[in-house]
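Issue: copy button drops trailing tokens. Both records pasted manually instead:
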Amino acid sequence: MSYKTIVGLEIHVELSTKTKAFCSCANEFGGEPNTRVCPTCLGLPGGLPVLNENVVNYSIMAGLALNCEIQKVSKFDRKNYFYPDLTKGFQITQDDMPICEEGYLEIEGDEGLKKVGIFKIQMEEDTGKSLHTETYETLMDYNRCGVPLIEIVSKPEMNSGREARLFLEKLKSTLKYIGVSDVKMEEGSLRCDVNVNVVDETSNRKTQVTEVKNINSFRGVEKAIDFEVQRHIKLLEEDRDEIKTTRRWDDVNNETILMREKYTVADYRFAPEGDLVPVVLSDEWIEKVKERLPELPEAKKNRFIEEYGLAEYDAEVLTSSTQLANYFEEVAEHFEDRNMISNWIMTEVLRRVDNIEDSFDLPFGPEDFASLLKVIKEGKINNNAGKKVLREMFEKGKNPNEIIEEQGLLQISDSSEIENIVENVLKENTQSIEDYKAGKDRAFGFLVGQVMKASKGKANPKIVNELLREKLNNL
């Protein structure tokens, strides 16, 4: 039998505005519980919502970055349901008239380049947070109530857990790049629900859609989908069916667990939000927001390949964060060997940086890093000495030339001085000379090592090799 997996994603992204969506409370993570609240975000009588203009601007930016059509007129609705974290008894969201529609993201799918459609992007507010204690009590923190969200709803056009993970990774990178969200899953800034079912392509029978919630990593999304696919295939093989359900992902046991029957649209009793007027956008407003949009990751990667002559993998790594990409370009202004910059950043710099997505604040500037690369390129110090200098730069933030001078790391490039060392080494290693003449290649490497040892590692290796080979061939 042949089975086809169908996956759609619903992604909630908290926007990084200074204040909440419909009130002036601070939009910040953490803080003492229930200290960043007011009558509006608590849903108290008399508290009326006032739309934060930057929520609209950030939503437009996200829509443009995700190739969406920006709707000139959109409206807010009330999504009704009862839960302790929703004080009003309804959520302000958008239903049939969202701010963005018909977008897409391209990923490297299972069968090559694939365009995954985005059904809509809607503005809405976040709910509070339930804290469950060891004594089986539930405490409520409403600081998160009213935090601005965009919900990004993909079309069901992904066909594996891997494709869903790649979609999420690219989405996260794009939203981080344009600065509308910090997209930190560990802080709840990016949350994802999965919808998955399976079609038997022989009989055209399909399983009911399962929604999976509470997934806290992209790898978890991939594993949850893979688990559900196997569970759905088993349902088809056993000729069983089930109603639409909502399940949660158990990271410990790597399985999904039934939570409840899945809500339908009718359950939410959508109705227009009477306290907010429709959002009407002019061409000038959209164009003004478009001008604020930075260069997107894919465009920057292609430019790095074309402008700097980098390999595709190098360009992809270097453009994975705006800070890293900016640092590379700042170094490139002072040093022309762009591939050398790339190699040193990816091998020696990134292994000393914990998280390039959150911070790329090095203890030395791009000019100092360029200065180090120059002295290595010019042969004034060798690679090993360069790595030693870079380590000191990380630990003490010193200028590379200062470190080189303090530690006496400059290479000996004077041919006459190196020639004297070579001659002394040959006098002391007559057996190695005989071995070299007998065709034993290791003898040459041994002699090079002896010269480097005698020079305390300072002799220019290229000159050492040339002089040593010349002397041996003339003996």
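Record 2 (pasted manually too):
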Amino acid sequence: MDYHWDWQFFFQETDDGLKYYEWVVSGLGWTTAVSLASLAVALLLGSVLGVMRTTPKRWLVAVGDTYVDVFRNVPLIVQLFLWFFVVPELVPQQMGIWMKQDLPYFVTAVVGLGLYTAARIAEQVRSGINSLPRGQRFAGLALGFTEWQTYRYVRLPMAYRIVLPALTSEAMNIFKNSAVTYAVGILELYFQYKQIIEKTSQVLEITIVVTLAYFILAFVMNRLLAFVEKRTRVPGLITGTGGK
């Protein structure tokens, strides 16, 4: 293949006075920020939905099931476009104008990615709670806990430990899924990747660098949660492999 390798182009100045490697660093920063903020939203909402789907109240189960069915079966990029283009047209006019003109793109991206991932985490949390012996709930109630206190102090702490490997996969995926947020104006890593290719045509160099960047982000998250899994593993209940 007749390809001219040129790694030094990363240190060339761009039209805005920055160097190309600074574009990569900036994109990496936005990718990390969007991913971590979305993960926080997804963990919080996904946990609530997972609990709702295991309660004795049928209407809560129905709400949780409907949410999961809708958000898991609509592609992420379509959901982002809905939040970015459609929702501002459905709300009152003044709010719609504010959403289109003043609401940071970052917020839209975090909401879209967070709500999408929450549906997946809700399924993991529900599975973890349902895998626990029913006697744990009855023991909590016998101690005088309310239904919600049994979740808070008894069932959820155990459920999280059981599903932590699955949550690790979701945490890693959220960094990769964040690439889609370029479609709503976030100057994240994939956006910068496309920009650099258009400006320089050095496809192989920037592809290798961006691939390594995504790998490092996902790998660091994997190792961090593997450490948490190892420290919180319940002997005799969970056979973990993440710490190996």
